[in-house]
Design a protein that fits this description.
Largest sheet: 3 strands, antiparallel
Strand content: 15-25%
Distance between the termini: 43 Å
Shape: extended
Strand order of the largest sheet: 1-2-5
Order of helices and strands: HHHEEEEEH
Structural class: alpha+beta
Oligomer: single chain
Length: 124
């Protein structure tokens, strides 16, 4: 009896044309992460825009959110998401390798809260 091999999913299509059709058939709704390039491609196709334009908008959104978080502001897009800054107090922790007690400094954290439309989409 042969040792069992892990299931790695379907093999990628062999021909260039098949691979192109396979990529086009993928959607944003799947169980793996969507990277930036895939997100830009999907939004560009959906909105009928150039990928360069969508990438510029995405980079501007990121820059705007980073600036707001740096100032401590809350950004809210009703139905979609809200981003705000939270505070984590200083606390005592333990080094797992040595068991030694260490002091963990206070830090600011970023809170992302999904809006109602996003939550509804996740529960369909």
């Amino acid at each position: 009896m042969q040792p069992s091999r892990p299931y790695l999913g379907r093999a990628a299509p062999a021909s260039r044309r098949q691979r192109k059709q396979h990529r086009a058939a993928r959607t944003l709704i799947r169980e793996t992460f969507v990277n930036r390039k895939e997100l830009v491609t999907a939004v560009a196709e959906h909105a009928d825009l150039e990928q360069k334009t969508v990438d510029a908008v995405l980079r501007s959104l990121q820059s705007t959110l980073e600036g707001a978080v740096a100032k401590g502001d809350k950004v809210s897009v009703p139905g979609f998401f809200a981003v705000s800054v939270g505070k984590r107090a200083a606390r005592e922790g333990r080094n797992p390798a040595t068991g030694e007690t260490i002091q963990i400094a206070a830090a600011n954290t970023v809170k992302f809260t999904a809006g109602s439309a996003l939550k509804d989409a996740a529960n369909k």
